[in-house]
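User: I want to check something. If I give you two sequences, will you return the structure for each one separately, not as a complex?

Assistant: Yes, each is folded on its own. Here is the first sequence with its structure:
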Amino acid sequence: MNNTLRNILAVIFGIIIGGFVNMGVILISGSIIATPEGSDTTTMEGLIDSMHLFKPRHFIMPFLAHAIGTLTGAFIAAKFSTSKKLLSAIVVGVFFIFGGITNVFILPSPVWFSMIDVVAAYIPMAYLGARLAKG
């Protein structure tokens, strides 16, 4: 298989698997840290309306979902790429950071969480994923 095609497929595969990991962490998060009383997180509208009820502990799992999903996706992209492994991982990180930035504009989350999430959950995790894939 052509190296470029394999690298592209590795990135796509990394994005898909990273997305599944992200969503998996989000789906189990309510059983680890209960959502605030009276909040509805089953729909985007309910989540937006409930954000004012969230305390700092409620942002741990979303951060972990973003970080672990990006880390996993970047690791897979780097592991299965034939060359330019760091670039493949960073492309996955950039894809996920666009989603994170979109969430900043959609969800009325606290500024401190938005900053930590955008700065720490994507590109650093993509870099770490690439480094782990080399090992």
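And separately, the second sequence with its own structure:
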Amino acid sequence: MPPQAPGTANSKQRLVLSGVTIIDTRNGAKSPDRAVVIENGKIAAVVQSNAADTTSARIVEARGKFVVPGYLDMHCHPLGSRDDEGNLNMMLAYGITGVRQMSGSPDLLAARRAGTLIPTEAAPELVLIPGMILMPLNAGSPDAARAEVNRQKEAGADFIKVVFVPPPVFFAALEEAKRVGLPYAGHIPPGVNVVEAARAGMYAVEHLLGSFEVCSSEEDALRHSEGSMPNLPQMPEGFKLTEIFERAISNPILMRPPSFEFERRMIDTYSGDKAKRLAEQFAAAGTWQVATLIRLRTMQLGDDPQYRNDPNLRFMPQGTRQMWKSLAQQFGVRVGAGAKKTLADLSALQITLVRAFREGGVKMVAGSDMGGQWCIPGASLHQEFALLAEAGYSPLEVLQMTTLNAARFLGREDRMGTVETGKNADLAVLDADPLAGVANLARLHGVLRAGAYYSGDMLEGLKRKTEQRHATAA
């Protein structure tokens, strides 16, 4: 077969990835010197390298490399942004082959139905998308929430995402979502008991919300404390509503009371025994957790130099960079030394809580919440891997959270999560053994997306293209 033109990927081409070691994500077993035969976007065969049928195939010699399923970012916001194409290109360049989009709208759902939602071929698969997030504006009462759930079901939403509604509305929407067959996921609003939500059938809890209240020796008082309520953001005169909303979403920590007394109480009254019990309750209910530790840390350390000076910021649009830097300045002015210590302590305690979840067998998947302040597409998921390792997860367990566990979350083990015949040809090819350390998950030699092969040079090209588009930024 003629050689492929440089810088292009062809999903129609029959391809043989030869000489690789395949990692079994179920148990960490390694199968060396294998060939993965790709046809029509699927894995057609996995055989010894010398037994592969290379007829009419492009051969990618990758001897000594390691192959795992492509990564799934199970909490992110690449669509509806300042640069959807750049976000998706960057995520693919970091080995991400599937995304769970966590914010939707009638327009985004209509674009998906029309096949116009994804603006670039070099993109992960959109595995799930909700409709409009449930808020008082569209779910102001139990009846309004039920009606909104049905509208989203009819529009093709894959799940219902809740953020900030009163407890009666929260549970009415949950029951209606169950009735119409949509998973219910998202935040735990003030006043809602996360254990009751799990028992009622909430599918996934994001950002560890609701858990620290349950782990407190002052549980009831904290859950109903006024300190748990967000404040309206204080913005300079002349800001438009969309700017205020964007800034508030980028770092909601700045909407909290500046003393952070509520957070201090959560930290000081944390009970390891109650955390252990909570983990048992989540495991018994089968509730998934999407911790997004990197997102929590970047909010709580909002002006930290490691994020302000991240070289990967060059991949972000100018307007986003400027907004993030402005928020960091606001953080530095608004958050005093004592409050900064509280937030740093909370960030450390989140690692402790996630360690308790691991020990208790809570079902977990990996998500970056890309879209928030300092959460850069692709890179932020790799930062999440490092934080999960800090919480005690082994390299295999971290790999499982972004592959096999995510496939189970989606109910799609028949097509993703392992490198086997019949599965999607969405793969990451690594230069080093991912079981030797989570840092090796970032050592990408190439990526296959729907059977199209992107070499390391091509992945770097996607990054350069994104950088060049934003090169005018200050």
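Because they were folded independently, the notes below concern the second chain alone. Residues 15-69+419-469 form a domain with the Urease, subunit C; domain 1 fold (CATH 2.30.40.10). The two ends are 46 Å apart (CA to CA).
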